[in-house]
Amino acid sequence: MSRKKILVTGGAGFIGGNFVQYMVDKYSEYDIYNLDLLTYAGDLTKHKSIEEKSNYHFVKKDIADRDAIINLFKEEQFNYVVHFAAESHVDRSITDPGIFIHTNVVGTQVLLDASREINIDKFVHVSTDEVYGELEFDPTTFFTEDTPLQPNSPYSASKASSDFLVRAYHETYNLPINITRCSNNYGPFHFPEKLIPLTISRVLNDEKVPVYGDGKNIRDWLHVTDHCSAIDLVLHKGQNGEVYNVGGHNEKTNLDVVKTIIETLGKSEDLIEFVNDRLGHDKRYAIDPTKLEELGWKPTYNFDSGIKQTIDWYLDNKDWWEQIISGEYRDYFNKQYKM
Q1: Which intervals hold domain NAD(P)-binding (predicted)?
Q2: Residue 265 in contact with residue 196, Cβ under 8 Å?
């Protein structure tokens, strides 16, 4: 029996990178291909522990480069695609929406066309709860898979557009697909511009921590390891054409998250600095993951255990995030991959 080939797009990013490591370590019988363009948030230093393994392969390409992607798919004949690659920072989407449309919409269409070309076994599209818009501060309301899509930022609009494309390719061309929509992820190797790693790094350096508005916006937090196990389950057992929400049952205000990190690190809340609110800042996200739980998934982390593990990881891996902040990480993969 020939070995299965799984293409993971965006495998040098945060969630995709954790998923690549998860799959390489768990499935020695699969060949895992990490496809990434290595833009500003792409970091290959996180894969030092697996880069010599025989079932790990790295490919540097742009998912929106149609000829390159079509040729790659024809050459490798992938069995599965797990699609993470996306521009994902909301603030950046507000200042430069165009790159989000190019990567998140055009890039997804190219991947779908390439998958059709070789009759892929399954295309798993990893999306976000932000496509649903926002919820009121009502603890009885949650996003379900049937919630209408009402994106409020250029980023979430680009992700909603790619979700619709994936659905359309299933309905029109019978392409086997699943879509997952997750809540806010956190954990090891999170790029330092995001809330939790930004707070950890700034608190450790006794620097001010910016908090948007009054800090009362609520997010449902999901440890990245739990997200990886969810996608693994959907890849292998998800019903063709279905959407699955992935949530951690861990709703926290942004201010509570920052205060928890400050308290854990033994610092003063005087480090908190309230700044002007983000444009179009959604009030609350909260996921109902019942459908996925019925498939057999359960998160292993609650927020208390997950944030402790994450803070400990950042304390133990200062070299990683310090060289990310300084930009030195680029020297590693430029040398390693002769770029």
Answers
A1: 7-310
A2: no
Within a domain: 260? no
| Percent of the chain whose pLDDT exceeds 90 | 80
186 in any annotated domain:
yes
What burial letters (b/e) apply to 214-226, b meaning 16+ CB within 10 Å? Answer: ebebbbbbbbbbb
Separation CA 117–CA 317 (nearest Å): 42
Catalytic residues: 129-130, 155
Characterise 107 by phi-psi region: left (phi > 0), alpha (psi -120 to 50), beta (else).
alpha
- 332 falls in which pLDDT band (50, 70, 90)? very low
Q: How many CA atoms lie within 13 A of 35 on its CB side?
A: 26
Judge whether 318 lies within some domain.
Answer: no
Our count of domains for the chain comes to 1
- Report d(CA 252, CA 145) in Å as an integer: 22
Per the structure, the complete domain to which residue 186 belongs is given by 4-190+221-250+284-303
The tens digit of pLDDT for each residue in 256-268 reads 999 999 999 999 9
Q: How far apart are CA 297 and CA 36, in angstroms?
A: 28
Q: pTM of the entire structure?
A: 0.92
Other C-beta atoms lying within 10 Å of the C-beta of residue 55: 18
Q: Could you give the strand order of the β-sheet that contains 122-128, starting from the edge strand earlier in sequence?
A: 56-60, 30-36, 4-9, 80-83, 122-128, 177-182, 243-246
Say which range, 182-186, 236-240, 335-339, has the weakest mean pLDDT.
Answer: 335-339
User: Span 26-45, mean pLDDT?
Assistant: 90
Residue 114 lies in a domain: yes
Asked if 79 and 6 count as a contact pair (C-beta separation under 8 A), the reply is yes
Two tokens, residue 327: 């930009």
DSSP state at residue 148: P
**In this structure, which amino acid lies at residue 147?**
T
Give the mean pLDDT of the chain. Answer: 92
- The CATH number of the domain where 75 resides is what? 3.40.50.720
Least Cα distance to 87 among 108, 115, 68 occurs for: 108
User: Does pLDDT of 97 surpass 50?
Assistant: yes
pLDDT tens sequence across 221-244: 999 999 999 999 999 999 999 999
CB–CB of 21/48 below 8 Å? no
